[in-house]
Amino acid sequence: MMSAERQDKPNGELQRGWTTGACATAATKAALIALITGDFPDPVAIVLPKGEAPHFPLCYEAINDSGALAGIVKDAGDDPDVTHGATIIAHVVPLPPGSGIVFKAGDGVGTVTKAGLPIGPGEPAINPVPRQMMRDVVGEICAEHMLPPDIQITISVPGGGELAKQTWNPRLGIVGGISILGTTGVVHPFSCSAWIHSIHRGVDVARAAGYERVIGATGSTSEAAAQALYELPETGLLDMGDFAGGLLKYLRVHPVPNITLAGGFAKLVKMAQGALDLHSGRSQVDFEWLARETAKLVSDGKLDAAVKQQILEANTAAEVLSVTQGLGLDLPAVVAGKAQETARGVLRDAPVAVEVIVVGRQGEVLARVN
């Protein structure tokens, strides 16, 4: 039906792109409109979580006895994303009244088989934000046409099974293909030098403005959690991403009085272990380290053998977090403290006070040390 051949990226200045979640949402919107009206909007526009409204040209469209299909070629900009150039296809099918919105994994989209991920075992690997984006689109269109939002959405990515071999999906227990990801819908160009350069310029701006504090966050959820505590000007929010070392080393020479480092549990576990580059391709969670630190939280320092084995065999850091929370052990506080030690080690004697905030998946503060 569709070619799995990936398109090459254009040369030129670094450009941002769109996530698989944004592409799946746009394809879903186009397919559903065609299912209802018989006509495909091309290009199709969607509104992203931060209010941007990109337009996506269609590369494939079809209406058959079961429903309607629309396809979009993912443009990741200049990010070296394995899914750049892949085709994201949405197949929408009407369901009986009261069925609601049902997600299915088509060809090339993975299925979750292990615990510890944002989506439970047995579910298609379509992450929560893309799911909500698609639910919103379906709800709006169905309301506009006075129809019940009872729709099955099947997302396919031809060739996704092969692409997934270049990702962490097999190790995470996601089988059969790639994941449909994204929290903002936007892919920022992943150039180490360009990104770190941007961080440095952000520090420069904050210093010039006389800020007493800046926030360096690993992502939008952790940034929002930290920002809720301080309500800094936007220029005080440094898009640190995975480059904790790039930020801290620059602050060592160009200090700001206070830095708040905010990140998810897994990212900050790696920092607590001493890593300064938090990207999944360049640093890993050490489950033996997590087992040792968990044991220190037990009154006699001896971790139950079954719990230790559960930690050592965990699929993700989130799974370890769940296990320790179930035992009433405050592992995030340990992680925050150790991450703070790592940061202070990089800053050396620079006059910068370090605060670390560990943020949960729903934006809740799990631990805070300063």
What order do the helices and strands follow? EHEEEEEEEEHEHHEEEHEHEHEHHHHHEE
Q: Quickly give the CATH architecture of the largest domain.
A: 3-Layer(aba) Sandwich
Number of domains: 2
Task: Classify the secondary structure makeup into a structural class.
Answer: alpha/beta
Mean pLDDT, to the nearest integer, reads 90
For the largest sheet, list the strands in their spatial order: 4-5-6-10-7
Give the CATH class of the largest domain: Alpha Beta
Q: Sheet with the most strands?
A: 5 strands, mixed
Number of helices: 12
Number of strand segments: 18
How far apart, in Å, are the first and last alpha carbons?
Answer: 56 Å
Shape type = globular
CATH topology of the largest domain: Beta-carbonic Anhydrase, Chain A
What radius of gyration results from the CA coordinates? 22 Å
> How much strand content do the residues show?
15-25%
Question: Can you tell me the residue ranges where pLDDT is under 50 for at least 5 consecutive residues?
Answer: 1-11
Share of helix among residues? Answer: 25-40%
Entry keywords:
370 residues, alpha/beta, CbiD-like, Beta-carbonic Anhydrase, Chain A, 5-stranded mixed β-sheet, 12 helices, globular, disordered N terminus
Q: Summarize this, please?
A:
With 370 residues, the chain is an alpha/beta fold. The chain has helices at 20-37, 128-144, 160-164, 169-172, 192-208, 220-230, 244-253, 265-272, 287-295, 305-312, 317-326, 331-347, and strands at residues 17-18, 44-45, 55-56, 60-63, 68-73, 87-94, 101-105, 108-109, 111-112, 151-156, 174-175, 177-178, 186-187, 213-217, 237-238, 258-264, 353-359, 365-369.
